[in-house]
Design brief:
There is one protein chain. By secondary structure, the protein is an alpha+beta fold. The chain has one domain: (Glycosyl)asparaginase (Glutamine Phosphoribosylpyrophosphate, subunit 1, domain 1). It is built from three helices and four strands. Strand 1 and strand 2 form a beta hairpin.
């Protein structure tokens, strides 16, 4: 997953967590969405909240829509999307 093959944009990981994004590629690139989502893990109590915050920021700055899957350093997963057209499937453990 990840329509923007630029590290930090469509995909990113460091010691704090990992993210993969899809959606409006130009908007994702402009805000470096995946890295921003991992950054948001520091302020959010749950990965889903961090993903939602990163997407809200992208939408406010660019008008772009998309979705994120985000894992924190402990393996907790969260997802968020700003479009009704993002299909989501999961198997256990995702918030």
């Amino acid at each position: 997953m990840g329509d923007s093959p630029l590290i930090g944009c469509g995909t990113y990981a460091d010691a704090r967590g990992a993210a993969s994004a899809t959606g409006d590629g130009e908007a994702i690139i402009r805000v470096v969405l995946a890295a921003r989502a991992v950054d948001a893990l520091e302020k959010a109590s749950e990965p889903a909240a961090a993903a939602g915050a990163a997407l809200a920021r992208m939408q406010a700055l660019t008008g772009g829509t998309g979705g994120l899957i985000l894992l924190d350093a402990t393996g907790r997963a969260g997802l968020a999307h700003t479009t009704p057209f993002m299909a989501v499937a999961r198997r256990g453990g995702m918030a």
